């Protein structure tokens, strides 16, 4: 009798054990952080920005430099610009630095309009924007990473230029004869 009850008990326990992983399967599939914590469409913007920034890196321009080099539309076209803003602007306004970015954007527009040195004029606005972006690095990480990479690339390029000028000036032999 005991042998007949043991297999039945064993079978029912294994059947219960088999059901436990099945009931946990949906939990495992949804254990990733929920993606619906941000408004619809926001998830796609960082990928677009990363793609744009990858192109910027090839040209050795940071996102800020790229924006500064874009012409500013004036007059009646300004209304159209608001409706069809660039992806960079939309991304920047999608995070926690909306007001800081708008202040920076106005500074740049005023500087271009008055033909002023934008770097000098907007130094404080740029510093405030960068600090805000670092404070909200969870959202602005793609830009911060791209800017850091661009700065490192520029520093490396500058160092290479220094080495070239030192090698040319030292012996007058040129680049091809470094080792002689």
From TrEMBL:
<feature type="region of interest" description="Disordered">
    <location>
        <begin position="1"/>
        <end position="81"/>
    </location>
</feature>
<feature type="compositionally biased region" description="Basic and acidic residues">
    <location>
        <begin position="150"/>
        <end position="165"/>
    </location>
</feature>
<protein>
    <recommendedName>
        <fullName>GCK domain-containing protein</fullName>
    </recommendedName>
</protein>
<dbReference type="InterPro" id="IPR012891">
    <property type="entry name" value="GCK_dom"/>
</dbReference>
<feature type="compositionally biased region" description="Gly residues">
    <location>
        <begin position="168"/>
        <end position="180"/>
    </location>
</feature>
<feature type="domain" description="GCK">
    <location>
        <begin position="84"/>
        <end position="158"/>
    </location>
</feature>
<feature type="compositionally biased region" description="Basic and acidic residues">
    <location>
        <begin position="13"/>
        <end position="31"/>
    </location>
</feature>
<feature type="region of interest" description="Disordered">
    <location>
        <begin position="150"/>
        <end position="180"/>
    </location>
</feature>
<dbReference type="Pfam" id="PF07802">
    <property type="entry name" value="GCK"/>
</dbReference>
């Amino acid at each position: 009798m005991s042998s007949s009850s043991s297999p039945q008990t064993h079978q029912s326990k294994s059947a219960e054990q088999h059901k436990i992983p099945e009931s946990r399967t949906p939990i495992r599939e949804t254990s990733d952080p929920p993606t619906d914590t941000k408004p619809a469409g926001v998830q796609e913007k960082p990928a677009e920005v990363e793609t744009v920034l990858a192109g910027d890196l090839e040209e050795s321009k940071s996102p800020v430099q790229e924006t500064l080099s874009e012409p500013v539309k004036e007059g009646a076209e300004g209304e159209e610009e608001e409706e069809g803003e660039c992806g960079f602007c939309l991304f920047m306004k999608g995070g926690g630095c909306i007001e800081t970015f708008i202040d920076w954007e106005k500074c740049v527009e005023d500087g271009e309009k008055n033909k002023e040195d934008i770097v000098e004029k907007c130094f404080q606005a740029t510093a405030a924007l960068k600090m805000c972006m670092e404070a909200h690095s969870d959202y602005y990480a793609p830009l911060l990473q791209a800017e850091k990479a661009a700065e490192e690339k520029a520093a490396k390029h500058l160092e290479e230029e220094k080495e070239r000028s030192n090698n040319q000036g030292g012996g007058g032999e040129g680049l091809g004869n470094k080792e002689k």
